Amino acid sequence: MADQTEKAFQKQKTVNLNRKVFTVKPKPLRHIKNVGLGFKTPREAIDGTYIDKKCPFTGNVSIRGRILTGVVQKMKMQRTIIIRRDYLHYVKKYNRFEKRHRNMAVHLSPCFRDVGHGDIVTIGECRPLSKTVRFNVLKVSKGPGTKKSFKKF
């Protein structure tokens, strides 16, 4: 059964909760999918009990368009993070490059548990999920200099 922390009953649209069980060992009722493009479905998405309709692995969102990378900046919102994308802009007059950056709001599915500041995330474009969110996290890799250590909170 899903984690019920919201006021509305949380369920996946594609799963019928009223089916009759005739087998000895019933498998859990969970809809998962492969997003393609060489990205693996996380184990937490397969085994977890969370419900997220905006998750690319268990929800109603398809990944199409651009695949980008960025560094995690802020994690103050629920299921949404801010990433920073650095790039170089060429100035023709001086024949040089200048550093620029762009912050983007990205949906972070609950299947990615241990994401922290400085982690490098790969994101994929999807339909607009809110006013500012148009991308979904597909893969998380630890940032440079991040050691696996005990964190109290």
What does this molecule look like?
This protein is mainly β. Helix content is 3%, strand content 29%. Strands 3-2-1-4-5 form a 5-stranded antiparallel beta sheet, with no helix packed on it. β2 and β3 form a beta hairpin. It is elongated, with a radius of gyration of 19 Å. The protein starts with 42 loop residues before the first helix and ends in a 12-residue tail after the last strand. The relative contact order is 0.19. The model has no long low-confidence stretch (mean pLDDT 88).
Class by SSE composition: mainly beta
Helix and strand sequence: HEEEEE
Q: How many helices in DSSP terms?
A: 1
Counted beta strands? 5
Q: Largest beta sheet: what is the strand line-up?
A: 3-2-1-4-5
- Contiguous runs where pLDDT drops below 50 for at least 5 residues: none
Radius of gyration: 19 Å
Helix content: under 10%
- Determine the mean pLDDT: 88
Question: Kindly, what is the distance between the CA atoms of the first and last residues, rounded to a whole number of angstroms?
Answer: 27 Å
**Could you describe the largest sheet, including whether it forms a barrel?**
5 strands, antiparallel
What would the principal axes of the Cα set say about the shape?
A: elongated
Residues in β-strands, percent: 25-35%
